[in-house]
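Lab notes, practical 5.
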Amino acid sequence: MDSVLIIGAGAAGSVVAKKCAMNRDVFKKIHLASRRLESCKKVQAAAKSPIDISQVDADNVADNLTANASNEADQIKANAENKADAIKNAADNKADAIKNSADNTTDKK
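Output from the prediction step:
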């Protein structure tokens, strides 16, 4: 799980956000959204590592869709970058293997 969107910066949401911020090997991107931006800012300041915050009304469907779409877009971008890195690494490994094979062939002659 690379990213998490937490709705609500109350008692439960703040604990979840802070715990996620302690576990960055699992949660690469943390976004906390709440009706009161001030609540998000308090949690952000208390978190052990950076978290993104925004103001959103959970009862407002348009706000939720906007926040979720932004989070999904970031996740899609990160996944694409990871796949591109994996393809590049695989190509580099294959090129190295071909070069080593060619070197071994010329060494035997």
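Observations recorded by the TA: The chain has one domain: 3-108. The longest strand covers residues 29-34.
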